Here is the input.
Amino acid sequence: MSRVSSMAILALLATLGIGLTWLVQHSSAPRIAAEQRLIDSRNLLDLLPPDSYDNQPLEQPLTLESTALANSTLLAGYRATKSGQAYAVLLRSQTLGYASTIDLLIAIDLNGRLIGVKTLKQAETPGLGARIADWPNDWLRMFAGKSRTDPLDQGWALKKDQGQFDQIAGATITSRAVINATHDALRYFDEHRQPLLGNPSHE
Here is the structure.
């Protein structure tokens, strides 16, 4: 077999290999994307009781206005509904912790009370502030049932700052950042309640 023939066969095999690789990747892309959406959905929606909503909140993100808040920034918002009636609003918030930014998911019911808070992303000190990422998280659970007025504004602080909340041991800055961001989200909800909850007749 001549050198030219060998080169031609190698080129053909390489082309076939590239083509097959592309075909496999292209055909599996929708399945991979669907699996990623399912993972994202579980990660973002596990703050809500499974039977509390029947829509797909992540597929209909809310339009948020004035998202730069006092101590945090809102990155996204979603509405969970059941039979066309709003059940909860999920606000994705970012705040500055001790080592880096912290991304939180804050779920608020239609009465303005916290359903729960979850850490989505953080780079805090391992063994200290990084415990904010544990799930389930006993420290974050203390926010459940709280609202903008329960406690009042001055109560939304660490006990060492004359507020009502304990801190994560050894993580004062992280704890303070999460409390402030959660309070921000509750204020935002209260001030933008109507557009966040929507008009049931248009659900």
